[in-house]
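Feature request, filed as a ticket because there's no other form

It would be nice if the structure record came with a short human-readable summary line next to the tokens. Right now we just get the raw output. Example of a typical job, pasted below so the devs can see what we mean:
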Amino acid sequence: MRGIFITGTDTGVGKTYFTSLLTRALRKRSVPAIPLKPISAGDRTDSIILSEATGGEISPVEINPVHFSAPLSPYAASMVEGRPFPWGILRERMGKLAQNYQGPFLVEGVGGWRVPLDSSLGIREWAQELSLPVVVVARNSLGTLNHTLLTVDSIRQSNLTLLGVVLNDTTPKPDDSSITNPALLEQLTRLPVLSLPYQSTQLPSLPAWLTPL
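Raw output as currently delivered:
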């Protein structure tokens, strides 16, 4: 499977929003990107949004083969629902997707980088198994420097390729924090940073580091 792994500093930071914009931007360039959210908990709105970004080429069920009803971490949801995390189903469905679609695949994680999937494995270990380069999505607000630096440190310790950071503006009016965060994160992480304007309907640009090979 070729593509990128899209993780976040937290839940609700805009991973699906960014993944859908990136899918549309790549497809406009005739790159047949396939967005995936293989694991979800709570409602399945995200998989519908991602399906729509492909013009319905891939169904929400294909996009999201592992789903828990409880809006919790997958590990907590599996305990509440009384069933173990279905690693076999996840791996089987991911393999079929790689056979059925050319890609590249935009694989979105669930929650943040260290979210647990069962008692011993989490998003970090799953990303290591997939061995895709990683993009970090963060909320552009006060506190994001700490959250992003901790996430970047952990990804680097996992020996995965880190492509860059996407900062998502979540309020219409910039403040001192959102204005200074991009340049500071570029300096502190030595990574490229892409800023997403508030409720943008398209990517402001499509840098080379966001174009999967």
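Something like this underneath would help us a lot:
DSSP finds eight helices and eight strands in the chain.
The mean pLDDT is 96.
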